[in-house]
């Protein structure tokens, strides 16, 4: 089965993190993606985010390579620009120029701070965008913020936002719009948007500035991680009354007077200590067996290599075998069968074929691929 984006061509200027993630999403869902490589990028062997592309190496500092790039743009529906603001303009390849060649081109510009604003030209990474969003201050133990991997700003607030906005704009073009949009996808904006619930709770007086003092940050006893006797951990998310009552029943605390109210924040430390003592008395396997089949929102905290063997993931085909080992399969899916993994990325391997399709002769192709 072809993906819903089949028939669309996306040009991806090589970057790190959110740009490749967005291109992977578009490719996984049927788009043809052609990646333009550049030297000096950090690379991860077997990186699954680079699957499903054809690849060409073009040095855009050279005029004949820019000629190849503009011809690619003329044939494309979308472009992913991961560069700092102003770089494409400095090359003479800004949105005005590119859309004069192809008015229907959707240009997705992904950057840390956006195309304008006081921090526009500053360097940054996920942790910086998350810090400025207000969310990093809310994550972690009471004494300091924690580093939640580079997932919130880079991928949720960056790559996923870019893939969604490009799909939205491409849909607009399919519906008859006469000019493509230029998307300003700032990870700092996206990180804040991902935290909309926290701002809503704060505005309603239901979220304090202190960490480990709120419902969803480890403060509430029924939402957090607990150590078992063997040093492994359980994740507990029994927020709703029916869930936390069943949980307390299974751990032997349902009649404990300390749990008369789970809404009294003053009782949370005592309740959390009681749950911790109960869970720490037995190993993880004991608790996994106790909670199996129950409706209590409890799961083991799995390591990466354990996750791929989990029976639920195995049944759904949530992981597939990549070039160097198991990787997450394309998601979401459109039926019970997972989509197969696209072929692995081969940097620059398709350059000659792509340029020939664009009408360049052998001499021109050799010059472009060996500037």
Automatic annotation (TrEMBL):
Key words of the record: Isomerase
Source species of the chain: Sphingomicrobium lutaoense
Protein name stated in the entry: Alpha-methylacyl-CoA racemase
EC number: 5.1.99.4
PANTHER family membership: ALPHA-METHYLACYL-COA RACEMASE, SUCCINYL-COA--D-CITRAMALATE COA-TRANSFERASE
Pfam families assigned to the protein according to its UniProt record, in alphabetical order: CoA_transf_3
GO molecular function: alpha-methylacyl-CoA racemase activity
Annotated region (Disordered), positions in chain: 327-352
Bias-annotated ranges (Pro residues): 327-346
InterPro entries in the record: CoA-transferase_III, CoA-Trfase_fam_III, CoA-Trfase_III_dom3_sf, CoA-Trfase_III_dom_1_sf
